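Worked problem 6 (solution included).
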Amino acid sequence: MPLIKSTYKPSLLFKSAHFNTIYKTIFNKQTITYRRERITTPDSDFIDLDFSKVGSNTLVIAMHGLEGSSQSKYIISVINFLNTHHIDCVALNFRGCSGEDNLHLYSYNSGKTDDLDTTIHYILEHYNYKNILLLGYSMGGNITLKYVGETKFIAPEIKGTIAISVPCDLEGSSNALAKWYNAVYIQKFLKTLKEKTLLKITNFPANTIHKEAVLKAKTFEDFDNAVTAPLFGYENAKDYWAKCSSKPFLPSINMPTLVINALDDSFLSESCYPFNEARNHRYLNLETPKYGGHVGFNTSHFKKDVLWSENRILNYINHIISS
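Solution. The predicted structure is:
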Protein backbone atom coordinates (compact mmCIF):
# COMPACT_ATOMS: atom_id res chain seq x y z
CA MET A 1 0.00 0.00 0.00
CA PRO A 2 1.24 3.55 -0.61
CA LEU A 3 2.13 5.63 2.42
CA ILE A 4 -0.85 7.70 3.52
CA LYS A 5 -0.77 11.49 3.45
CA SER A 6 -2.21 12.60 6.76
CA THR A 7 -5.06 15.06 7.20
CA TYR A 8 -3.99 15.96 10.74
CA LYS A 9 -3.58 19.73 11.06
CA PRO A 10 -3.40 20.89 14.68
CA SER A 11 -3.62 24.39 16.09
CA LEU A 12 -0.43 26.13 17.24
CA LEU A 13 -0.50 24.78 20.80
CA PHE A 14 -0.76 21.20 19.60
CA LYS A 15 2.28 21.62 17.41
CA SER A 16 4.10 21.14 20.70
CA ALA A 17 4.67 17.40 20.94
CA HIS A 18 4.83 17.36 24.74
CA PHE A 19 1.65 19.41 25.17
CA ASN A 20 -0.12 17.14 22.69
CA THR A 21 1.11 14.07 24.59
CA ILE A 22 -0.11 15.15 28.02
CA TYR A 23 -3.29 17.00 26.99
CA LYS A 24 -5.84 14.20 27.35
CA THR A 25 -4.32 12.96 30.60
CA ILE A 26 -4.66 16.38 32.23
CA PHE A 27 -7.69 17.96 30.60
CA ASN A 28 -9.96 15.13 29.45
CA LYS A 29 -12.58 14.74 32.19
CA GLN A 30 -14.68 12.06 30.50
CA THR A 31 -15.84 9.11 32.55
CA ILE A 32 -17.26 5.74 31.58
CA THR A 33 -19.21 2.89 33.15
CA TYR A 34 -17.91 -0.54 32.20
CA ARG A 35 -19.24 -4.02 32.75
CA ARG A 36 -16.32 -6.19 33.81
CA GLU A 37 -15.82 -9.82 32.87
CA ARG A 38 -12.94 -11.78 34.34
CA ILE A 39 -11.57 -14.62 32.27
CA THR A 40 -9.17 -17.36 33.27
CA THR A 41 -5.96 -17.81 31.31
CA PRO A 42 -4.45 -21.19 30.36
CA ASP A 43 -1.77 -20.68 33.04
CA SER A 44 -4.42 -20.22 35.78
CA ASP A 45 -4.17 -16.45 35.97
CA PHE A 46 -6.87 -13.93 35.06
CA ILE A 47 -7.53 -11.09 32.64
CA ASP A 48 -10.13 -8.38 33.30
CA LEU A 49 -12.13 -7.26 30.28
CA ASP A 50 -14.15 -4.04 30.57
CA PHE A 51 -17.09 -3.89 28.16
CA SER A 52 -19.05 -0.86 26.99
CA LYS A 53 -21.81 -2.08 24.69
CA VAL A 54 -24.49 -0.32 22.68
CA GLY A 55 -26.03 -3.29 20.86
CA SER A 56 -23.80 -3.39 17.78
CA ASN A 57 -22.67 -6.29 15.62
CA THR A 58 -19.18 -4.73 15.56
CA LEU A 59 -16.74 -4.90 18.48
CA VAL A 60 -13.47 -3.06 18.98
CA ILE A 61 -10.92 -4.66 21.33
CA ALA A 62 -8.95 -1.70 22.71
CA MET A 63 -5.51 -2.21 24.27
CA HIS A 64 -3.73 0.34 26.43
CA GLY A 65 -0.08 1.29 26.58
CA LEU A 66 2.60 0.57 29.17
CA GLU A 67 1.22 0.90 32.71
CA GLY A 68 -2.13 2.06 31.37
CA SER A 69 -5.54 0.45 31.84
CA SER A 70 -9.17 0.68 30.77
CA GLN A 71 -9.21 3.93 32.77
CA SER A 72 -6.54 5.60 30.65
CA LYS A 73 -7.98 8.81 29.25
CA TYR A 74 -7.25 7.89 25.62
CA ILE A 75 -9.05 4.54 26.08
CA ILE A 76 -12.09 6.21 27.68
CA SER A 77 -12.11 8.85 24.95
CA VAL A 78 -12.06 6.43 22.03
CA ILE A 79 -14.58 4.02 23.59
CA ASN A 80 -17.06 6.81 24.37
CA PHE A 81 -16.62 8.14 20.84
CA LEU A 82 -17.10 4.75 19.18
CA ASN A 83 -20.12 3.99 21.39
CA THR A 84 -21.80 7.18 20.14
CA HIS A 85 -21.31 5.81 16.63
CA HIS A 86 -22.98 2.51 17.51
CA ILE A 87 -19.88 0.38 17.95
CA ASP A 88 -19.39 -1.94 20.95
CA CYS A 89 -16.04 -1.87 22.71
CA VAL A 90 -14.07 -3.87 25.22
CA ALA A 91 -10.91 -2.66 26.95
CA LEU A 92 -8.39 -5.39 27.59
CA ASN A 93 -6.55 -4.76 30.85
CA PHE A 94 -3.17 -6.43 30.66
CA ARG A 95 -2.26 -8.51 33.71
CA GLY A 96 -1.78 -6.44 36.83
CA CYS A 97 -3.27 -3.32 35.23
CA SER A 98 -6.94 -3.65 36.21
CA GLY A 99 -6.57 -2.45 39.78
CA GLU A 100 -5.75 -5.87 41.19
CA ASP A 101 -2.46 -7.72 41.09
CA ASN A 102 -2.38 -10.86 38.98
CA LEU A 103 -1.63 -14.29 40.41
CA HIS A 104 1.86 -14.99 39.05
CA LEU A 105 5.29 -13.49 39.57
CA TYR A 106 5.24 -12.39 35.92
CA SER A 107 2.52 -10.19 34.46
CA TYR A 108 2.76 -8.66 30.95
CA ASN A 109 5.41 -7.39 28.59
CA SER A 110 5.52 -5.44 25.33
CA GLY A 111 5.40 -8.54 23.14
CA LYS A 112 3.28 -10.95 25.19
CA THR A 113 0.50 -11.73 22.74
CA ASP A 114 -1.04 -14.84 24.33
CA ASP A 115 -3.42 -12.82 26.49
CA LEU A 116 -4.80 -11.11 23.41
CA ASP A 117 -5.27 -14.54 21.84
CA THR A 118 -7.07 -15.77 24.97
CA THR A 119 -9.31 -12.70 24.88
CA ILE A 120 -10.20 -13.19 21.22
CA HIS A 121 -11.07 -16.85 21.76
CA TYR A 122 -13.23 -15.94 24.76
CA ILE A 123 -15.16 -13.34 22.77
CA LEU A 124 -15.64 -15.68 19.82
CA GLU A 125 -16.96 -18.37 22.16
CA HIS A 126 -19.31 -16.18 24.20
CA TYR A 127 -20.44 -13.53 21.72
CA ASN A 128 -21.67 -13.41 18.14
CA TYR A 129 -20.05 -10.36 16.61
CA LYS A 130 -19.95 -10.10 12.84
CA ASN A 131 -16.96 -7.74 12.86
CA ILE A 132 -14.13 -7.54 15.39
CA LEU A 133 -11.39 -4.89 15.12
CA LEU A 134 -8.15 -4.73 17.11
CA LEU A 135 -7.06 -1.30 18.36
CA GLY A 136 -3.77 -0.87 20.20
CA TYR A 137 -2.09 2.20 21.64
CA SER A 138 1.68 2.41 22.12
CA MET A 139 2.72 -0.89 23.77
CA GLY A 140 -0.77 -2.22 23.01
CA GLY A 141 -0.16 -1.34 19.38
CA ASN A 142 3.09 -3.30 19.36
CA ILE A 143 1.32 -6.31 20.85
CA THR A 144 -1.47 -6.00 18.29
CA LEU A 145 0.84 -5.82 15.28
CA LYS A 146 3.01 -8.65 16.53
CA TYR A 147 -0.05 -10.80 17.12
CA VAL A 148 -1.52 -10.38 13.63
CA GLY A 149 1.92 -10.86 12.09
CA GLU A 150 2.88 -14.01 13.98
CA THR A 151 -0.50 -15.79 14.11
CA LYS A 152 -0.98 -18.25 11.28
CA PHE A 153 -4.76 -18.59 11.58
CA ILE A 154 -6.90 -15.64 12.61
CA ALA A 155 -10.66 -16.04 12.85
CA PRO A 156 -12.55 -14.46 9.92
CA GLU A 157 -14.49 -12.27 12.35
CA ILE A 158 -11.26 -10.31 12.94
CA LYS A 159 -11.50 -7.80 10.13
CA GLY A 160 -8.55 -5.49 10.72
CA THR A 161 -6.11 -3.71 12.99
CA ILE A 162 -5.37 -0.13 14.00
CA ALA A 163 -2.22 0.77 15.95
CA ILE A 164 -1.44 4.23 17.31
CA SER A 165 1.96 5.61 18.37
CA VAL A 166 3.65 2.23 18.08
CA PRO A 167 7.19 1.54 19.37
CA CYS A 168 7.55 -1.23 16.79
CA ASP A 169 11.31 -1.31 17.43
CA LEU A 170 11.52 -1.69 21.21
CA GLU A 171 15.25 -1.11 21.44
CA GLY A 172 15.01 2.10 19.47
CA SER A 173 12.08 3.32 21.54
CA SER A 174 13.82 2.41 24.81
CA ASN A 175 16.87 4.38 23.73
CA ALA A 176 14.68 7.34 22.77
CA LEU A 177 12.98 7.31 26.16
CA ALA A 178 16.38 7.38 27.84
CA LYS A 179 17.04 10.85 26.36
CA TRP A 180 17.01 13.82 28.74
CA TYR A 181 13.91 15.37 27.20
CA ASN A 182 11.88 12.27 28.10
CA ALA A 183 12.99 12.23 31.74
CA VAL A 184 9.52 12.99 33.12
CA TYR A 185 7.94 10.13 31.18
CA ILE A 186 10.55 7.50 32.03
CA GLN A 187 10.39 8.43 35.71
CA LYS A 188 6.61 8.06 35.67
CA PHE A 189 6.79 4.64 34.00
CA LEU A 190 9.54 3.36 36.27
CA LYS A 191 7.78 4.56 39.42
CA THR A 192 4.78 2.26 38.96
CA LEU A 193 6.84 -0.56 37.44
CA LYS A 194 9.11 -0.54 40.47
CA GLU A 195 6.18 -0.39 42.89
CA LYS A 196 4.57 -3.42 41.25
CA THR A 197 7.86 -5.30 41.19
CA LEU A 198 8.55 -4.65 44.87
CA LEU A 199 5.07 -5.99 45.67
CA LYS A 200 5.87 -9.11 43.64
CA ILE A 201 9.12 -9.57 45.55
CA THR A 202 7.14 -9.48 48.79
CA ASN A 203 4.36 -11.78 47.57
CA PHE A 204 6.73 -14.30 45.97
CA PRO A 205 9.63 -14.66 48.43
CA ALA A 206 11.22 -17.47 46.41
CA ASN A 207 11.83 -15.10 43.46
CA THR A 208 15.29 -14.47 42.02
CA ILE A 209 14.77 -10.77 41.25
CA HIS A 210 17.59 -8.58 42.54
CA LYS A 211 15.82 -5.88 44.54
CA GLU A 212 18.80 -3.55 44.50
CA ALA A 213 18.95 -3.61 40.70
CA VAL A 214 15.24 -2.76 40.55
CA LEU A 215 15.64 0.19 42.90
CA LYS A 216 18.65 1.52 40.97
CA ALA A 217 17.01 1.23 37.51
CA LYS A 218 16.99 4.56 35.68
CA THR A 219 16.17 3.38 32.16
CA PHE A 220 14.10 0.68 30.51
CA GLU A 221 17.32 -1.16 29.75
CA ASP A 222 18.11 -1.26 33.47
CA PHE A 223 14.61 -2.42 34.37
CA ASP A 224 14.26 -4.95 31.57
CA ASN A 225 17.65 -6.46 32.41
CA ALA A 226 16.68 -6.75 36.07
CA VAL A 227 13.04 -7.81 35.76
CA THR A 228 11.42 -8.34 32.36
CA ALA A 229 14.10 -10.45 30.68
CA PRO A 230 14.67 -12.95 33.52
CA LEU A 231 10.97 -13.31 34.35
CA PHE A 232 10.06 -14.13 30.76
CA GLY A 233 13.10 -16.23 29.87
CA TYR A 234 15.06 -13.78 27.72
CA GLU A 235 18.85 -13.50 27.90
CA ASN A 236 18.80 -9.78 28.58
CA ALA A 237 16.97 -6.59 27.64
CA LYS A 238 18.27 -6.57 24.07
CA ASP A 239 17.20 -10.18 23.51
CA TYR A 240 13.74 -9.31 24.85
CA TRP A 241 13.47 -6.23 22.65
CA ALA A 242 14.60 -8.10 19.53
CA LYS A 243 12.14 -10.97 20.01
CA CYS A 244 9.17 -8.84 21.10
CA SER A 245 9.36 -5.96 18.63
CA SER A 246 6.53 -6.04 16.10
CA LYS A 247 8.61 -4.66 13.22
CA PRO A 248 9.98 -8.03 12.03
CA PHE A 249 6.42 -9.39 11.95
CA LEU A 250 4.97 -6.63 9.76
CA PRO A 251 5.70 -8.35 6.41
CA SER A 252 3.51 -11.31 7.49
CA ILE A 253 0.39 -9.26 8.22
CA ASN A 254 -2.44 -10.31 5.93
CA MET A 255 -5.37 -8.14 6.98
CA PRO A 256 -6.15 -4.42 6.63
CA THR A 257 -3.88 -2.58 9.07
CA LEU A 258 -3.39 1.09 9.82
CA VAL A 259 -0.41 2.41 11.78
CA ILE A 260 -0.37 6.07 12.82
CA ASN A 261 2.97 7.32 14.19
CA ALA A 262 3.56 11.06 14.54
CA LEU A 263 6.93 12.25 13.30
CA ASP A 264 7.38 14.39 16.43
CA ASP A 265 6.67 11.52 18.86
CA SER A 266 9.52 11.75 21.38
CA PHE A 267 8.94 8.13 22.46
CA LEU A 268 9.87 6.80 19.03
CA SER A 269 13.23 6.39 17.34
CA GLU A 270 13.75 6.63 13.59
CA SER A 271 13.57 2.82 13.46
CA CYS A 272 9.98 2.92 14.75
CA TYR A 273 8.71 4.26 11.42
CA PRO A 274 8.35 1.22 9.12
CA PHE A 275 8.42 3.08 5.81
CA ASN A 276 10.15 0.30 3.89
CA GLU A 277 7.83 -2.39 5.29
CA ALA A 278 4.71 -0.42 4.38
CA ARG A 279 5.74 0.95 1.00
CA ASN A 280 4.96 -2.19 -1.03
CA HIS A 281 2.80 -4.01 1.50
CA ARG A 282 -0.60 -5.21 0.37
CA TYR A 283 -2.31 -4.61 3.72
CA LEU A 284 -0.15 -2.31 5.85
CA ASN A 285 -1.00 1.40 5.72
CA LEU A 286 1.39 3.80 7.43
CA GLU A 287 0.34 7.34 8.28
CA THR A 288 2.97 9.68 9.70
CA PRO A 289 1.59 13.14 10.56
CA LYS A 290 4.17 15.84 11.13
CA TYR A 291 2.66 16.51 14.55
CA GLY A 292 0.73 14.49 17.10
CA GLY A 293 3.04 13.68 20.00
CA HIS A 294 2.61 10.30 21.69
CA VAL A 295 -1.03 9.16 21.69
CA GLY A 296 -2.02 12.81 21.28
CA PHE A 297 -3.42 13.93 17.92
CA ASN A 298 -5.61 16.65 19.40
CA THR A 299 -6.65 19.49 17.13
CA SER A 300 -7.77 22.61 18.99
CA HIS A 301 -8.80 22.96 22.63
CA PHE A 302 -10.92 25.99 21.65
CA LYS A 303 -13.29 23.72 19.74
CA LYS A 304 -15.43 20.85 20.88
CA ASP A 305 -13.90 18.54 18.29
CA VAL A 306 -10.38 17.72 19.45
CA LEU A 307 -10.75 14.08 18.48
CA TRP A 308 -8.86 13.70 15.22
CA SER A 309 -7.51 10.24 16.02
CA GLU A 310 -10.92 9.00 17.20
CA ASN A 311 -12.47 10.18 13.93
CA ARG A 312 -9.62 8.64 11.95
CA ILE A 313 -10.12 5.32 13.73
CA LEU A 314 -13.86 5.39 13.04
CA ASN A 315 -13.32 6.17 9.36
CA TYR A 316 -10.88 3.28 8.97
CA ILE A 317 -13.23 0.88 10.76
CA ASN A 318 -16.08 1.89 8.45
CA HIS A 319 -13.80 1.48 5.45
CA ILE A 320 -12.85 -2.04 6.54
CA ILE A 321 -16.31 -3.36 7.38
CA SER A 322 -17.94 -1.84 4.31
CA SER A 323 -15.42 -3.17 1.79
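Discussion: The CA atoms of residues 96 and 102 lie 5 Å apart.
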